[in-house]
Amino acid sequence: MKKTDLTKGNVLRVLTALALPIMGGSLLQFAYNLVDMLWVGRLGTDAVASIGSSSFFIGLGYSINAMVVIGAGIKVAHAVGKKNEYETKAYMNASLVLNGLLGLLYAVLLLFAGKSFISFLQLGNVEVEQNAYLYLAYSAPMLFFAFFNLLFTRLLGSFGNNKEAFKISAIGIIMNIILDPILIYTFKMGVLGAAVATLIANVTMFFLFLYKGRSILFFDKTIGIEYEKVVEIMKLGFPMSFQRILFTFVNIILARMIAIFGSDALAAQKIGLQIESVTYMVIGGLNGAVASFTGQNFGAKKYERIHEGYATAIKIGGAYALATTMIFLIIPGSIVKLFIHEVTTIEIASSYLRIIAFSQIFSALEMITNGLFTGIGIPKVSAKISILFTVLRIPMALLFIQLFEINGIWWSITLSSLLKGVVAYLYYKLKVQKQYRCDAVDEKVFKGYNA
Known about the structure:
Shape: globular
Strand content: under 5%
Order of helices and strands: HHHHHHHHHHHHHHHHH
Largest sheet: none
Number of strands: 0
Helix content: over 70%
């Protein structure tokens, strides 16, 4: 499996080559989410609400996993940029062991504490609660393999090889799409069929990664585990991981508020989130591309090239986010009707899309800027900004509910996203960009941002 040098060549072409496989993977994931929601939606609002409720705790697992994925991605990209083979292997060893431990522990936690997690949401519907827990229990072993699949994807990105990760992800997602209707309807497994399909797909992807990436994705016994490397990965990844964990907890609290308005409201949010993910097909690709691109160029001390790459990504992301904004404002109801037929759910989900539309450009700005912060090794900046304004959603939601009922929750999400995007960009312009004026800048100036 080849390694790609991201410190040379036309910036737009390099970024495009990096982003397209990630975008392709996101497009396939989006297609799967659409198909999955179509099949589950046919089971009714309660089925959608069950999966939506359990998805908060599955997302919590991914947030914890981000500590390893982000930390390892930064350190491996820097080592590759410096062409330091020993450091590259040492950081990969540390990330593989740490990732395995976290995946195992979280899977066990979901199995034994899953019922308590679902009960916390106070759904007020026994059938929804039972199905939500069963879906969560079946997802526990899936997460162990998903943790590694995410790490493998990020490590390949650090080597500048996103194409292989895309191919493997494509196989997993297509397999999921095929298995969903078979398990849900042919074998009459209902909601559980969706969980089992995802488990099978992730196990398949895991072994494909090991086979295809055997020249890179392996534990080097000659180096072993260096404790300081484990600590470095955790320190770098913890801020962003904590940010995502907090983000998930905030969403869980918001879900408890949404549950007050019934299972229709929970289902509407789940559908709205799936539709909104169309934005992240491109923006998520740009985030990953900027992080990998910046990581290698930072290791090679090519700071002007970093700035050029960021500016290019912002232009592409901004144009795409503007397009999704217009779609969500103009035809939200037509999109929602593809997934559900209950009138109340359609109305709530349509309102969600109209309100969240105003945050799309700012969310794109935040994600792309976070990719740069991650690449140069200052994820604490992104974490601090996100933590502040994500937590702010709760008091804003409590206030806005009094004025706009459930739409008040959607407005709290939109306003916090707007603030995060603006503040992240201002920090870049006022603090970081000054250091990009020439390639002769001492990299020590960046290290101060980790304080």
